[in-house]
Write a sequence for this structure.
């Protein structure tokens, strides 16, 4: 029963976002601010994770492929496909659920507790449109871009690790990347990226927007937002794989 | 003028507002007073539309607020200014940006014109030169004044203040009270103040609503309070011996038993 009520409130929050902005210029400014916060703010962690996941993927694949019958280019193919299909969209989004999700939940929670949301309501501003919509649109634009960057850096990380560890040469790696490449994998990864971006932004926004109590509750709702987002990302990951692959 | 009739609001089994009615007058400082849990905050939240009453009606200058369309309500809200207990300033914005926020949102004026208006209201609340400071860098009293500046920047017809003196020293409280009172007269605003502060009640209370258990127990002015026979009101307002003495002194002054010159320098009551 509580779940149904929470789900209903979440749907109403999403529905309530779609209203005419009071002043497009102010909303645009807020949207750009969110793009900078979510996109540029997460670029550092995404870069580090992507390079290392590609590198580890290359080293571990080579460790498992012991058969002399298999070409070394297979390592590049496996790194490429695992990074594009799973590591870049899912792993990066789980990290972003922690980084971006907790920030959104705590920011809105703090605004709720300190009556800043009430102050906006009193001014006649639709707070769902002003506070939640720019965050979701910014996430829908910047997170897929971050995922594309993660794919490129992940594959490059595999190339770097492969050559540095003497597993395979950069030429062999580059040749492997071009073998049996399926462009649909990138489309699938982007579908996942958009789905996860919506989860990462809307679920924490719900938990932050409706927080009740004081600073302790802000922390709790922030943790809950991250946990629920991660579970939903994994669930959506499975559902999308089952439907689209 | 804000009029509300038979407002009822419950949370689960608990009825917080139990058929409260009153008229808040234009150009006056209207006070809602009462003990904790008497329903003052819920009443104020119902009046501004942050909570929906279960039944009853609210009229803003004759317009039924309770049955207004969302768009109409939104337009009315642009005529409402509110000072929150914790000031509710936007942490990431400077004083200037906080005060300019409603202007950015609801006017098409250029930056120079908006800045001029911001400086006008900041001057009015004695905050000249604080434009570039962030809320974290200013004192509680200054935050309240920034809150007032933000609330009046769009020339509202109605001003709501939730515990404007909470957390402030007596002197700063008096400054805030005087400021609100002056602004009310200057701009002919309908001001509604929710307070616990007895100084405010006695100094600026022109139309007081005393609430007990979600009901209007007593209404009157600060002068009426002195002569009120309402036991609950007297116990609430004049809770300490000091306040009781102050009341007696005021009564004696009002009835001509003592004059200002009879009072000793230390302000104590003369011996009978």
């Amino acid at each position: 029963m509580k779940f149904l009520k929470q789900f209903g409130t979440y749907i109403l929050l999403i529905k309530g976002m779609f209203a005419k902005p009071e002043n497009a210029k102010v909303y645009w400014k807020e949207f750009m601010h969110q793009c900078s916060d979510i996109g540029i703010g997460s670029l550092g962690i995404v870069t580090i994770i992507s390079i290392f996941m590609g590198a580890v993927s290359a080293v571990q694949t080579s460790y498992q492929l012991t058969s002399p019958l298999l070409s070394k280019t297979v390592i590049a193919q496996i790194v490429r496909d695992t990074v594009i299909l799973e590591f870049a969209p899912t792993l990066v989004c789980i990290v972003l659920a922690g980084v971006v999700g907790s920030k959104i939940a705590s920011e809105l929670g703090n605004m709720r507790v300190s009556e800043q949301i009430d102050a906006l309501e009193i001014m006649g501003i639709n707070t769902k449109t002003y506070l939640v919509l720019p965050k979701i649109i910014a996430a829908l634009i910047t997170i897929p871009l971050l995922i594309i960057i993660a794919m490129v850096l992940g594959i490059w990380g595999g190339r770097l690790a492969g050559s540095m560890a003497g597993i395979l040469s950069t030429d062999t790696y580059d040749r492997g990347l071009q073998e049996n490449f399926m462009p649909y994998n990138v489309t699938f990864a982007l579908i996942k990226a958009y789905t996860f971006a919506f989860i990462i932004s809307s679920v924490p926004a719900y938990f932050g927007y409706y927080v009740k109590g004081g600073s302790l509750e802000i922390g709790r709702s922030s943790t809950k937002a991250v946990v629920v987002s991660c579970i939903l990302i994994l669930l959506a990951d499975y559902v999308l794989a089952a439907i689209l692959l | 003028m804000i009029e509300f009739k038979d407002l009822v609001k419950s949370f689960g089994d608990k009825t917080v507002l139990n058929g409260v009615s009153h008229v808040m007058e234009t150009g006056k400082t209207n006070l809602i007073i009462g003990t904790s849990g008497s329903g003052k905050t819920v009443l104020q939240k119902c009046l501004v539309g942050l909570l929906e009453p279960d039944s009853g009606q609210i009229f803003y200058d004759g317009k039924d607020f309770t049955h207004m369309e969302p768009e109409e309500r939104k337009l009315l809200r642009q005529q409402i200014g509110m000072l929150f207990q914790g000031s509710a300033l936007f942490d990431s914005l400077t004083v200037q940006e906080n005060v300019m926020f409603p202007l950015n949102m609801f006017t098409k004026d250029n930056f120079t014109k908006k800045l001029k208006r911001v400086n006008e209201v900041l001057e009015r609340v004695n905050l000249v030169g604080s434009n570039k400071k962030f809320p974290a860098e200013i004192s509680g009293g200054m935050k309240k004044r920034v809150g007032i500046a933000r609330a009046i920047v769009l020339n509202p017809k109605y001003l709501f203040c939730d515990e404007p003196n909470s957390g402030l020293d007596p002197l700063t409280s008096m400054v805030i009270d005087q400021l609100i009172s002056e602004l009310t007269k200057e701009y002919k605003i309908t001001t509604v103040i929710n307070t616990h502060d007895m100084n405010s009640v006695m100094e600026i209370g022109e139309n007081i609503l005393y609430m007990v258990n979600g009901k209007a127990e007593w209404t009157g002015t600060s002068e009426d309070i002195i002569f009120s026979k309402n036991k609950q009101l007297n116990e609430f307002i004049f809770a300490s011996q000091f306040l009781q003495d102050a009341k007696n002194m005021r009564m004696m002054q009002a009835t001509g038993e003592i004059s200002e010159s009879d009072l000793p320098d230390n302000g104590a009551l003369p011996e009978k």
